[in-house]
Amino acid sequence: MSLLGFLAFAGIAQGITDPSLAAAYHDASPLASTEPQFVFNQQTPPVGLNSLMLQQSSGSISGTVYAVDGVTPLANVSVTLDGVPVGTCTDASGQFVLTAPLNTEYRVRAGGSSACSHAAYSVEWWQETTTAELAPVIFLTDVAPSVTGINFTIGLIEGGLQSTGTVAGLIYDQSFNPVLNVQVCADYSNGAHIQCVCTDGSGLYSIGNISSDTPFKVHTAGHYDGMCDTTLRYVNHTTGDLTISDLEPNMQLDLQVASGGELNGTITESAVPHDPVPNMQVCANYDGGNHIQCLCTNAQGEYSI
Fold first, then answer.
1. What pLDDT digit, counting tens, does each position of 130-154 carry?
2. What is the pLDDT of residue 15?
3. Is the pTM of this model over 0.70?
4. What ranges make up the beta strands (E) of 148-215?
5. Considering only CA atoms, which of 233, 203, 202, 240 is closest in space to residue 219?
6. Domain for residue 232, yes or no?
7. Most confident of the following: 56-60, 201-205, 236-240, 288-292
8. Residues spanned by the domain of 89
C-alpha cells in the first residue's frame, strides 16, 4: 500500500489554502515505486506515517464571468482548467481565482453543468470559443505568475435550471450482512462535495440533490467530519464516474465493504521548524494503483485513513 500526500486542486473551494506544497510520499520519496509497502490483517494496529511536504511555486488565473449582456456578473458558475483537476466557483461578484503550478500551459473553461449550482450554463472557453482546441493557451511563469482579466460572457441553456436526482442503496459486508451506521459520501468528479450520510438500521442510505448529467463518485467508510461510527474499520470503497439523467433520475447503487486497518500520521513542511500543514489532501492507494481513500489533514496537520 503506498501513501501519497498531494494537493488536490479540485478541492480549492473546499478549503485547501496553500497550493505551494508539492507532492511527497512517505519517507520523503518523490516516487511511488520506492515507497514502503504495508499489509494489514485483523490483528494489525494502526500504523503511523509522517511526511514532509516540499515547497513548489504556484501562480494564479483570475477574471469575471458575466451574463450575455456583458454587464451582469454571474455567481456560482463553474470555472475550470483543461487537463488538470483545478476548478472553482465564481463568487457573488462573478469573480474567480484559480491557483496552479508555474511553468505549465492552461486553457480556461467557464459554464456547463456543474457542482456550483443547479443552473445549466452554456460552455465558453477563453477567449470566446466553444472548442478547447481553439482556445488560447495561458502560460504561468516566474516572471508572470499571475494572469488577470480572463473574462467570460455566458448564458443559461434552455430550461434554465438543471434537474437533479438521487443515488440510494444498501451497504453490506463480506458476509452479505447490512452494515449499520457507516458513512457514505457523494462528490462530483471535479472534487466538489455533495453530501455524506450514515446508513440506517437496515444498512440503507440515500443521497439526493445530485445534478443530472454531471459525473460524480460515491465512496464509503470514510471518516470525514467524524460522523457516523468512527470505531468501524472498513476499507474505503470508491466507485468510478457515475451520472444520473432526466430519464433515470434515481440510481440504485449497492456497495460491499471489507474490514481493514488504519494509517495515521502528520504532514509537516520540509523547512525548519517543520510546521504542520492543515487542509492538505492525503491519499492512500493499494500497490498497483487502486484507490483507497483521500482526506484532508486537520488543523494540526494530522490525518487518519
1. 878 889 999 998 888 999 999 999 8
2. 34
3. no
4. 152-153, 156-161, 164-172, 183-188, 193-198, 204-211
5. 240
6. yes
7. 201-205
8. 58-161
